[in-house]
Design brief:
CATH architecture: 3-Layer(aba) Sandwich
Structural class: alpha/beta
Shape: globular
Largest sheet: 6 strands, mixed
CATH topology: Rossmann fold
Amino acid sequence: MQNGEKQKQILVLLGSPRKKGNSTTLAQQITKGAESAGAKVETIYLNGLNIKPCQGCYACKKKDSKGCVVDDDMQSLYPKMIASDAWVIATPVYWFNMTAQTKIFMDRCFGLFDASFTVNPLYKKKIAIAMSYGDSDPFNSGCVNALRSFQDAFRYVGAKIVGMVYGSAEEPGEIASNTELLEQAEALGKKLARS
């Protein structure tokens, strides 16, 4: 970090129900790279939070809205999401897409911006994606479905996906043997911290 530069704040959001799963391993490598580049990283385990699905009430889009009105753990997460310079979203593929824990989180991001996009803390937010899947192919596994969902959602709100790392691993911890992928994840963390 150069003199006078603000330390980057990175929020890591783990969407796997496994605390030591393969997508978490990739996220840890991204964290390692980001911290080595001077960033401050906080990790949130989504499966451990009480996050309700979006209710489609549109209260967050009404005039003079204060945001999402659903009273759950997202209320303590929203300020961290807004304050951070970048996010890392890590999820395995479950049944051809991101996990339910990750999807609920993504749906609740809807409450961050107003109807006219005058208030949009996601605009220019830097995002890194880490994914693992059981099949040998990202198409057959459904990994591409999740990647496309992230691309479409973040493009819509003007956020920038800085990079994605994803790979095949069936058993917990298996991805740790993919040294090339781990190196890519660490490099992504450095890039995220410097972007």
